[in-house]
Amino acid sequence: MLARSSRGRARTAVVAATLIASVIGAAPAHAVPAAAPTALPAAVPPGDQLDITPHWRTQPRQVTVSAVSAGGFAHETEDSDPAFGGELFWTDFATGRTASLGYGSGTPAFAESGVGGRYAYVRSGAGSHALRDLATGTEEPLTIPRDASYRGLLGDTLLFQQYESEESTQTTTGYYLRRVGDPAGTKIPVTGFPEGAGLHMARLVAGDDTAAVIRFGRSATDPYDLTDLGLVDLRTGRMTVIDAPTSAGQSILVAPVALSADRIAWIDRDRRVHVRERSAPLGPERTYALPEGLSAARIGLVGDWVLAVGEAGGVDSALRRPLVALSPEGVPQTLLEKAEPEINQIAGGAGAAVVGGSSATDWSLLKAVPGKGGGAPALEKLRRVEPLATAVQSLALGAGRLSTLEQDGGLSRGFFAWDLPVAPLHTGAPEPAPVGSEERLEPTTPLFDSGDGRTVHLARGGSGLDVVGRRSAKEAARVSTGKTSGWLADASGRWAVFQGGRPTVAGVLVPGEETLVVDLDAAPGAPSVVKRQPQTAAALRGDTLFAGTATAGQVSRTDLVTGKDLGTVATGATCQATELQVTGRWLYWACAQFGRQGVLDLQTGTRIALPRGSSTGGLLGDGFVVDRDGGSYLRLTDFHTGTAAAPRTLVDSEPLPGVRREGWTVDRFGGAVAYRDAQDHVHVVWTGVPTSDLTTLAARTPATMRVQDGWRASWALSKPAAAWELQLFDPHSWEPVRSFAGGETRGRVDVVWDGRTAAGKPVPNGSYTWRLRANTADGKGADLLVAGSVSVSGGRPVWRDLAGNDMQGELLALDTTGGVSMYRGDGFGGLSGRMTATGAKFATSTVLVPFGDVNADGCADVLARVGDQLRAYRPGCGKVVTASSPYTLLGSGWGQYDVLTSPGDANGDGFIDLIVRQTTTGDMYFYAGTADHRLAPRVRIGVNWKLYKKIVGVGDLNRDGRGDLLGVDAAGVLWRYYGTATGGVTPRVRVGGGWGGYSALAGVGDISGDGCADLVARDTTGKLYGYPATCAGAYQSRVLIGSGGWNTFKALF
How confident is the model at residue 1051 (pLDDT cuts 50, 70, 90)? Predict the structure, then answer.
């Protein structure tokens, strides 16, 4: 991670030096850095900064080379800012130093800046001319007579065009030469022009330090009828005229003429190439047709090969224009697939130079030199051309997620996103992800980060402006505002605030316009614009809308999910807010075009006054505000202590282009600021202001769930988390039934629970406690801990929970007429009031067995042995079973059993089971419940249990996940049998004596609210006692829960 270099405001010389950079051993020149504003404290140290690797533009950086010599080259280099450009530079190959040559004449005239010597022509302004000694860097003024024009510099010879007089510059009388450094300014006239030569339109088109080539015509009527080339000896001024008609092309200043140390070549109007020896310019020549597809505008010479480039147009022409070498016989051979159109002879006979490469990131000034054995020329790199970054037009930053909108030259615009480091150490090279493109964007498109992974922006839709929430290249939600003008004010999660109209200046509202709140996640058919009101300042934090009111200093709050009014807060402002921003605990307000602004701490109520803001607005961070000072430097005001500190410069390397959310932005879910520099490189700097505690901005935690639907919960985080864990607990044992965990998380934690344990078993219906813990990623502030509960229904009912879905057991009682009553457990060890039903009554010999869910409706059902049949009755959740309740016949032959009871899930497979005793043998049989809600074939688990007067299934007594049995023998001793994984039982264990005095026992499940399976017992006097279980295989002392009258029931189940 490198600190940024300081730059001055005169950036053009620096641009050329740094962007046309890499000769080995060369170092770019630096301009004198501009002083940072003296009114501000010291800037943030540059160490905690990350430089984002830019996207390189698909098109190469355009470098127009006008002259090349052995020592360096003259060029105009495309700047990253289209507002800059047109300046000529000289770059020295040996040192890499670059110096400005001024802006020239604005036309691509050959040798205007000089070729083939140690001197360069400098035009620093209108009427300001100088000659620079490239060896020493010194400059001497160049006086150009008022009756002449400067036409070029060849070696140490200056070429001038002579007019009739300074008043009559439309008539040219000739040309003359002058030596650099000649104190007398001796003129050497150019002689040899033929009679009738068109002197006024004659132009220098080729040459070196010993000769010049001037192109001219002889027509008295058509000045562009260029028929001749004049080869001028620079020592004497004597011209040799060559009959060489050439096309004027797009400019008379550019000609298809090349002059090397030993040859001269040109292309005539019929696209034929002519090559002659320089020593015999009027002698024999080689000639051949220029192949189709090659441009006749420029050529070069390398030995006896001619260079030309392909014809191509458009913004990406350089990537489609080949460099071709023509053999002495005119046979073409491609040297390079991609090249710029300019071909320059290298003064001194060293070949020719062209700019090209394989791609925009592999672009160089190349030298073509003679090939071995007379073969095709070879290419050598002279200097790398640094690529241009795509133009960053807007950017957003939220929860460490950087978003940009970028323009690839004259091609497409696209969105990109980076995940930046959010740990305390900000290092690495984050990789970008494309997030799609948009055709109908506004000229300026500020970006917002919603905090949940979305980039939010405006785009033109079919009926006006749309609010777009973009997650990826394939996922983008759109909401039409129905407005033709307006701006985004905020975005958070699923919500965005849109302000209609076009304000006259920043920081004001538009009278008569509206404020809209849109829902980017609106369900199909539901309204997407959820709130519409007269325009007022508005901001979002999670699901809460903060909006200004007509009362100065008063801000309303609304829950956008429920529509509930959450009351108002008082900011202490004495003006009506025109802008609001909110981040975590901080509410920012501004009015009077940011002339007055402040912050309210929503936790403590502290009101913090801020100094006057920038007229273009600032952005709120966690404990600070960032804006631009008068010199366009970013400045930060830190108020996290409750008092605003003096503003300090945040980035002082150079003034930053662009307004907020276009040229720079703030991460309101963290402590970073992102900005783009003048070269469209993006940098992220961490402010050093301590961030607040990790909290939730919004949460969706449904209080109930049906297993069929699942539980979908989410928590919007106030800043990134390093890791998180959600646990769901059994409310009685506090054992986790399911855990979810994740690593680094930005924006939102999302959990979907299917109502099953980690082993894949469905949890019983009932209430479960959840707890979310998350650690701060930045290591600052407190970690997150929140908790709640969710009630599960529609799944596997808790054994004996027949009503209420409350995990409490119920007791069924059959009276002497066959009517059934139900008593609900009250959660405190007792029973609630009696519940009855109006349906038909059972036969009094019926045996009822409260059972599990037999039809997957999530309700506990009841088995009944009616006569010889076993029926599965389905009364429905919370209803008392009657003989009229719907049922399914499970089979006949059940009259052979004198005991039918359910211990719950005896084998621990997740299904409720049935245990019976055969009357004749006393043998015990196990019927396992199945996944399809039936009973498996019986398995004998005990022999001759006739010694027991009572056998009762009582649920899981020791929390091993299996249901257990109790038996009372003839002596009144209570024995306990634990269930096993096979459905059998362990050897019996004595629980205690004295149980013979009870006329009925029933395992009712948990009625005391502790998750342990309790027991009720009725004595012979009709009293009912509860025995709270310990969950360790034993019971506590009995508690009277029914004072009498229970002996009116024939049986308790």
Answer: very high
